[in-house]
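re: ur question from earlier - yeah i can do the single chain one, its not a big deal. heres the input i used so u can compare w yours
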Amino acid sequence: MWQAVTAWSRRVGGAGWTGPARRGGSWALIALGALWLSGCASTITTEVTAFREAGWQNDAPRTYAFDRTPQQADQLDRQTYELWLAQSLAGLGFEQLPPKQARYLVSMDYDAAPGFVRVAETYYPDPWYGPWGPYWGPYGWYRPWGPYGWGPGYWPPQTVVRDVPVTFSNLRVFFKDAASGKRVYQVTARNTTEGGTLTGVMPYMIRSAFTDFPAESGRPRRVTLEVEKDSKP
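and the output i got, formated as tokens:
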């Protein structure tokens, strides 16, 4: 079983980057208790954290319009991501309207940074087939009986460490009350994928961000979704 022990990431641009790396492209070391490398997995796990204004309720009318700059409006990738976001919001009962008619103004930003994660694999070598070959004991030739075979024939577990290239992806969505201009809800979704891309994981981050909406304020959680058939993050 692969277990992540440490990871490196670096800043490569993108608006609003809040990752663990320091500015200027320097490397930063972060300790991870667990890591989900979903590039080759059948599921994708995303870390989600939401915050909401005290007293805010998800009551009607649930209408919104996207809030973006003229430059952002011309970005084709953003147009696609907003379409996916609109589909998730529609499933929650939200209706998209022109800005002057909408209760909320919804904005989103995102970024991705390449990096490396150091993973360690623990395994139990078998001297019978390994470079040490079989060995002689008081009862003849021996080989390990299994990973728990203390006594004759036991060989201690070994660890192999390697650096895995990953993509650190981030999505942030903000709800602002159109009348007052106050932000009432925000959610952040973070994903770490081996050999993946931002575009590949974006649909899963959007869906994860709005699972159990509206989420409890300030309580991080992990959302695991199955990878859709014939899709690769």
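The radius of gyration is 24 Å. not sure if urs matches, ping me
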